[in-house]
Amino acid sequence: MPAPGPRDDLSEVLFLYTVAASEAEARRVASHLLKRRLVACVNAFPVSSRYWWKGKIESASEVAMVMKSTQGLVREVAKELRRVHSYDVPALVALPVAEGLGAYLDWVRGETRGPPLSKAVKPIKARNGRARAGRRTRRSGAWPRRASSA
């Protein structure tokens, strides 16, 4: 049996991490990548960063962004991020997803440019038809539930 290692499957789901200088920039970057279907989802949250820059230790309030995408789109995400980001050297790292709920991973594949591996699995929809698998509804903040079959 071969030793475990990174997959080279282009449909492998990844978490991509970057930071933005502000909430406005995070929204702009997220919208840019989402509209191009390079990412399926972006979570953004404020962070306090300390880092080396040009020989000095700096600090800044930034917005961390965790994006869900696939291996086959990482280079294009990087290209677009460099194009629209305000930083000279924007952070971008890809973290493989070792395991996850199959329906969620298929949802990520289906919402990006790659096809889902399993066409039999459909995203969960709330009664209003707007929520998707793995997403909270805006109104209630609750996770969408499957309709009961009673």
Shape: elongated
Can you tell me the residue ranges where pLDDT is under 50 for at least 5 consecutive residues? 1-8, 114-128, 130-150
Q: What structural category do the secondary elements indicate?
A: alpha+beta
* Overall mean confidence score, pLDDT: 79
- Can you summarize the main beta sheet? 4 strands, antiparallel
CATH architectural designation of the domain at 13-96? 2-Layer Sandwich
State the helix count. 3
The CATH topology of the domain at 13-96, please? Answer: Alpha-Beta Plaits
Order of strands across the main sheet: 2-3-1-4
- Strand content of the residues, in percent? 25-35%
The CATH class designation of the domain at 13-96 is Alpha Beta
What's the count of strands? 4
Helix content: 10-25%
Radius of gyration in whole Å, from Cα? 17 Å
Order of helices and strands: EHEEHEH
Distance from first to last alpha carbon:
46 Å
